[in-house]
Structure formats: C-alpha cells, structure tokens
Amino acid sequence: MIFESDRFYFRDFQIKDAEALFNLNADSDVIKYTGDPPFESIDKARKFIQEYDHYKNFGFGRWAVIRKQDDSFIGWCGLKHNEEDEIDLGFRFFKSEWGKGYATESAKACVLYAKEVLKMDQIIARAAIKNGASIRVLEKLGFEFQEKRACHGIEDAYRYILKI
After folding, report:
1. Does a structural domain hold residue 93?
2. Within a 10 A sphere around the Cβ of 94, how many other Cβ atoms?
3. Does residue 18 lie within any of the structural domains?
4. Residue 113 resides in a domain
C-alpha cells in the first residue's frame, strides 16, 4: 500500500491486476474519452504491467485503487510524468463504480499525496470536452481551466492546472 483514503487503498499495479486492467479497457464507455485503445489480450495487459516503469523512474505513477470493504480492484488513479515534462493526474474506473464519488475521493487522495509526500507544487489534468463527469471531478478539486488543446489522441480536450 502506498497511501489510503476513507474507502480505498492505493498500490502499485501487480501482475494479478492484468485481467482487471484488460476488462477495464475492454469497455468502450470507459475508454471513450481517453484516446487509449483496449488491450488486445490479457497477456498484453500483463506485459504493460511488467514494463510499467513509472514507479522506478519517478517514484509515483498510476496506482491500483482497491476498495477496502471487499479488497476489489475498481480502477486506477494517479500521477504520470507526461510527454511535456509535467505531472498529470488521471483516473479510470469500471462503469459499475461510476456515480459513487470514487473518482473524486481517489483524485483528492492523490493530490494530497503529491503535495504532502512528493512535495509537488502543481499538477495538470486533461479531459475531453465531452467528458463532463471528469471535468466536474477536476473542478471539485479546485483545478482551474487553462486552455483548450489536443492531447493524447483527443482533438477536443481541456487542460486544467492545480497549484498545490
């Protein structure tokens, strides 16, 4: 476990998460606004986990979000050192978990960890213009709209920034 919130704990991805990651990205509604393709197979998801070097290279990354109540992998949330040399907050959850405040709670916990443990002073986030739910999460956390700009294969996206 890296850190926790009221309902979740956050940890590095593990090989045992491969099937869950595969299933998460297999849902077209879940990846609709991400610019990411689904994994071709569980083996490809496993390979992604094995090759995921963000933890080693930067000391943080996208973390598995595990519900304390039943020890279930419900999605991921975390930080990424992006192609523009910035720290980017992102999250993705199974559709069955939408509308329960999980993204807000998880993202808030990640921001707090970034501030208090990693000593970061700002985080950016990007969301497709049509992804109202993610935009609401970012705004609840105090992210401020910065500009409209394409990102990660999404032409119509908003870029937000949070000074922490």
Report:
1. yes
2. 16
3. yes
4. yes
Using DSSP, state whether 91 is helix, strand or coil: strand
Tokens representing residue 95 in the block: 């559709």
Residue with tokens 């213009």: 129
Residue 109 and residue 3 in contact, taking contact as beta carbons nearer than 8 Å: yes
How much is the pLDDT for 113?
Answer: 97
Q: Are 129 and 156 in contact (CB under 8 A)?
A: yes
- Residues 42 and 141: their CA atoms lie apart, in Å, by 34
Closest by CA position to 49, among listed 16, 88, 87: 16
Report the number of distinct structural domains present in the chain. 1
Q: How confident is the model at residue 155 (pLDDT cuts 50, 70, 90)?
A: confident
Q: What is the dihedral of CA 104, 108, 111, 117, to 10 degrees?
A: -140
Q: What is the mean pLDDT of residues 144-161?
A: 88
Q: Judge if pTM exceeds 0.85.
A: yes
Kindly calculate the radius of gyration of the chain based on its CA atoms and give it in whole angstroms: 15
**Using 50, 70 and 90 to split pLDDT, how confident is the model at 12?**
very high
Assign residue 48 the CATH number of its domain: 3.40.630.30
How far is the C-alpha of 78 from the C-alpha of 89, rounded, in Å?
Answer: 6
